[in-house]
Design goal:
By secondary structure, the protein is α+β, with helices and mostly antiparallel strands. The protein is about 20% helix and about 35% strand. It has 3 helices and 26 strands. The protein is globular. It starts with about 25 loop residues before the first helix and ends in an 18-residue tail after the last helix.
Length: about 400
């Protein structure tokens, strides 16, 4: 008499009788993948934050002949000779929450602050009173990564000009914070003429309003784009082919009178190659700064922010915590600031580095533990499947005793 063998619910219909076959639940697999992605996003965020140095950053001229400099989530006020006068903490002194991305100094001593988390531009009086706040939403920011933008202001019209590097665009706002226009591309400029071919912006990481015009850094296209205040392209300053190709991705720019100063560098990860070039706005001529003037003392110099003063050009390297001084003829003049100021930059970076290093160690440990748990779970799941008992081919016959 034929008799069917009833299998345990955990037995595979294709496995040998009595052999249990366990498999990883789809829900568990999806959950593990989600956890790994979240941990990876957190780790990526920590790595990016560790690269955001608390060394010298954006530099802005004050109305009283002083210089204001971004320093982590503070603003340093120094003399033209580099003597520290004051440190202004955003949270403690101005009562402002958020991470400082960019700033501008008002003639009355107040500030216009570009903040992330959340993204907004805030007007603050010299006493710390918040006068206006203009929120906006940066598009294209990857999960867990801090958005990066730069802005400039036309004080006569009140317009804001925002270079959004995450969205590869120039955004124009009116004085009330309403978006007027978004520019995402610019034509080629050759032989003194704009060509019909449009090139999409790729990493718009700097903008400057000066002489009634806008100057936008289009880094990965290796050019600086000149526009009017309505966003119409007037011309471009091309940095391609002016030396080693990878050397000339503009990081920051500054305009003074008829000079356009550009800090440029190599965009490749962990590569420290950079320098400074000057453009004559009258004829568009390019004048590179000789690297031999400072490479011997600072071989890893990677310029990030630039400022043009009355008698010299200052270039900040936040990774190495230095501000270098250059003459208008390209000559290297030495470091900016006295010993106390330079020690201030190094001390602030050291405290931040210890905290970020601890965060990175924690995230690395979490990733290691998660991987070990997943491997152990898979091994245990398969231990109950005896070796040599693979799956049997389906049979149309019933088993008989």
């Amino acid at each position: 008499m034929a008799k069917q063998i009833h299998r345990h619910p955990s037995e595979s219909p294709n496995a040998a009788p009595g052999v249990l076959e366990r498999s990883v639940s789809p829900v568990v697999a999806v959950l593990v993948i989600v956890i790994m992605l979240l941990v990876l996003a957190g780790f990526t965020w920590v790595v990016l934050q560790s690269k955001k140095s608390s060394g010298p950053g954006k530099m802005v001229a004050g109305s009283d002949g002083t210089l204001y400099m971004e320093f982590g989530n503070s603003i340093l006020k120094v003399t033209e000779q580099g003597y520290l006068l004051e440190e202004i903490d955003l949270r403690e002194d101005l009562g402002v929450e958020g991470e400082l991305v960019d700033f501008s100094v008002e003639p009355n001593g107040g500030f216009i602050l570009g903040l992330s988390d959340p993204d907004k531009i805030v007007k603050v009086s010299s006493s710390g009173e918040v006068l206006d706040s203009y929120p906006f939403y940066s598009t294209g920011t990857p999960l867990g990564m801090t958005p990066f933008f730069r802005f400039s202001v036309d004080r006569e019209s009140g317009r804001f000009f925002l270079a959004d590097s995450d969205a590869d665009s120039l955004v124009i706002f009116d004085s009330a914070g309403n978006e007027i226009r978004r520019v995402t591309e610019a034509p080629l400029y050759a032989n003194g003429k704009l060509m019909p071919q449009e090139i999409a912006f790729d990493w718009t990481n700097g903008v400057e309003f000066a002489n009634g015009k806008l100057y936008l850094s289009d880094a990965n296209n290796q050019r600086v784009v000149e526009l009017d205040t309505d966003g119409q392209v007037l011309r471009t300053f091309d940095l391609k082919g002016k030396g080693r190709l990878s050397d000339y991705n503009p990081f920051d720019l500054y305009v003074r009178d008829r000079m356009l100063a550009v800090a440029h560098g190599n965009p490749k990860p962990y590569s420290k190659v950079g320098g400074v070039v000057f453009f004559d706005l009258a004829d568009g001529a390019l004048y590179p700064v000789s690297k031999e003037t400072y490479r011997e003392s600072f071989p890893d110099f990677l310029p990030d922010e630039i400022y043009v003063g009355q008698r010299e050009v200052l270039v900040a390297d936040p990774a190495d915590k230095h501000v270098l001084r250059f003459g208008f003829d390209g000559s290297f003049l030495g470091l900016f600031g006295d010993d106390a100021f330079q020690e201030k930059l190094k001390t602030g970076q050291k405290k931040r580095s210890i905290f970020l290093s601890l965060q990175m160690m924690i995230f690395q440990g979490l990733i290691f533990v998660l991987v070990v748990v997943v491997v152990i779970y898979i091994v245990i799941s398969r231990r109950n499947v005896p070796s040599g008992t693979g799956r049997r081919a389906p049979s149309s016959h019933t088993l008989r005793r």
